[in-house]
Amino acid sequence: MKNRITELLDIEYPIISAAMTWVTSAEFVAAVSNAGGMGVLGPNAGQTEKSSSPEDTAERLRKEIKKVKELTDKPFAVNYIFPMGDNTEDPFTNAIFDILVEEKVKNVIAIGQKVIQKEVIRLKKHNINIIYRDLSPTVQKLVEAGKSGVDALIATGYEAGGHMSDYKISTLSIVPQVTALVEIPVIAAGGIIDGKGALAAFAMGAEGVYMGTRFIATKENPASEATKKAILNVKSEEFIEFKSGIGHLRTIPTEAGKKAFELINQGKPEEAYKYYGNGFKVGMLDGDLVNGTISLSEAAGGIKEIKTCAEVINEIMNTLEK
Ligand SMILES: Cc1cc2nc3c(=O)[nH]c(=O)nc-3n(C[C@H](O)[C@H](O)[C@H](O)COP(=O)(O)O)c2cc1C
User: Fold this and answer.
1) Please, what's the b/e burial string for 281-309 (b: 16 or more CB within 10 A of its CB; e: otherwise)?
2) What CDD domains does its record include (predicted)?
3) Residue-by-residue pLDDT tens, the chain, 322 positions
4) What is the 3-state secondary structure (H, E, C) of 250-268?
5) Which of 15, 16, 21, 234 to mutate to test the pocket of ligand 1 (most atoms within 8 A of CB)?
């Protein structure tokens, strides 16, 4: 299959595993890339403890990038977080930028509340492909982002796992509106777990799919066995959802998740943060389903089997090429 995304990234299939904090690693990323898609190192990739500084974060990332290069010669990407809020500088962003340049990383999945033009300029100076994913996308924001010099966009619907948008716009709503208006290629994200979802995304004009939740439930993903089992058991209607520091958070109703939900509804966001702030690590990586949170797409109810990354990709490609 050839389109603008496979051409841009030099990959066989336009299937990208999402950047997900704590639940990516070199082994996982290489498994996706070796299967013909593109793996992405997320924040805390391959780690089991929090880092202490921007320099420490960057050096850990360097080690993980080196490991990916040992495991595959295929393209991969790194998550790149644009400075947020009123900041146009962020010491973490700067430290990671240096590593990307030194390690000659070719692709980033950049995220932010808006495109930061000076980041685009310095990444492009080093010929790094920029795929931009807005954290709270609207059609207007993505149209603007499409003119900023980035190479491709990810349009994320509210079905997605992780920190969701401030706006409740579904994948089925946002993707066709964006593909109708932007000239650069668009990748669809949010609730895509199989070939049928990918087919729908392509029918809406997307040229790639970006999938998180489905790839957590794979053999190679570093998430705990308890998390993978929880994905197989969860039903789409069981999730709870609350406003978090960044957008909204959907989680399986663990004790910590329920407590955070209650506290948010009582107007106590700071107290709630104590329950969900470190929740992805505690829940998803460490497997403590009482004290952690398990953030997933609502489409997780449709995942019935732990597969290898190659099996996930092959099923999608078999459906797309039928
Ligand atoms: C557990 C989890 C952690 C995530 N962490 C990040 C992150 O650190 N950076 C990021 O860009 N996106 C993050 N995301 C969002 C994904 O990149 C992606 O947009 C989302 O998973 C796509 O939706 P899906 O889960 O329905 O496939 C996370 C998603 C999940 C499920």
Assistant:
1) bbbbbbbbbebbbbbbbbbbbbbeebbeb
2) NPD_like (cd04730)
3) 899 999 999 999 999 999 999 999 999 999 999 999 999 999 999 999 999 999 999 999 999 999 999 999 999 999 999 999 888 899 999 999 999 999 999 999 999 999 999 999 999 999 999 999 999 999 999 999 999 999 999 999 999 999 899 999 999 999 999 999 999 999 999 999 999 999 999 999 999 999 999 999 999 999 999 999 999 999 999 999 999 987 899 999 999 999 999 999 999 999 999 999 999 999 999 999 999 999 999 999 999 999 999 999 999 999 999 8
4) EECCCHHHHHHHHHHHCCC
5) 21
CB-based contacts of 303, cutoff 8 Å, min separation 6: 193, 213, 214, 217, 231, 232
Q: Where are the domains of the chain?
A: 4-222+302-320, 240-295
List the beta strands (DSSP E) in 105-247.
107-112, 129-134, 152-156, 163-164, 186-189, 208-211, 240-243
CB 187, CB 131: distance < 8 Å: yes
Ligand 1 centre and the CA of 18: distance in Å? 6
Q: For ligand 1, atom 13, name the residue with the nearest CA.
A: 20
Q: Whose CA is nearest to atom 29 of ligand 1?
A: 162
The domain defined by 4-222+302-320 folds into TIM Barrel (3.20.20)
Handedness of CA 43, 47, 53, 54 (dihedral sign): negative
